[in-house]
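User: New here, any thoughts?
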Amino acid sequence: MFEGAIFATTTVSQLITYFNESNLAGQVIVVLLLVFSVWAWSLMLGKYMELTNAEKQNRNFDRNLNHCKSVMEAYPKDAKFPAYGPYADMLKSALDAYHRYSNSDEMGALKMKSEHAMGHVENALQRAVAYQSNIYEARMVTLSAIVSGAPFFGLLGTVWGVMDAFGGLAMATGPATIQTLAPGVSGALLTTVAGLVVAIPSVFGYNLLLQKMKLLITDLENFASSLADRIELELVK
């Protein structure tokens, strides 16, 4: 444990030294990559908590809905159902569409027009699925941009730093040695390391979130299909 603390202290000290040996462009890029790292981690943790919470809400709502005798009257009149969660919003959209059609039917022969009523309900469910999918996908483009852009930022800093180091070496009056070139090159390579440190955990987090998001969108589509079937069965009773 003591040796690990010494190693960590030495590593941090070396990184600070490399940072000080970088040119101004390299230092700016390292700071930007540090900001991108904090941003990426906040996006990943926030999105994971958001998707996990939505999954929990959907599971609880679906379990409660399965114990309800009639979907048509379940929400929002039934106080046992919580008024939050993607599934709850989808059910509300479907029943709102159903009741709008019912109120527009002056003859009161809604059961004889079940096909037209279901058309309104299914359209509402499709819009609800699209809306919830957009919510699930929010901020994923930003995370994808950080994953793709961080290594290029690091490469830019490295190329710029190496170019600056060789340019300074060419203008130097003394002999060209590895000792005079090494500090500038090591500082330049720091930006590549920083870019990879940002990109590597971000790409793993992005792929895990993308997989979780796809599963939740599939669950939305399955719930919409099941809900439409149940409403249609109750509509033609």
Notes: Residues 62 and 87 are 7 Å apart (CA to CA). Residues 178-235 form the longest helix (58 residues). The radius of gyration is 29 Å. Helices lie at 2-21, 24-66, 86-104, 114-137, 140-171, 178-235.
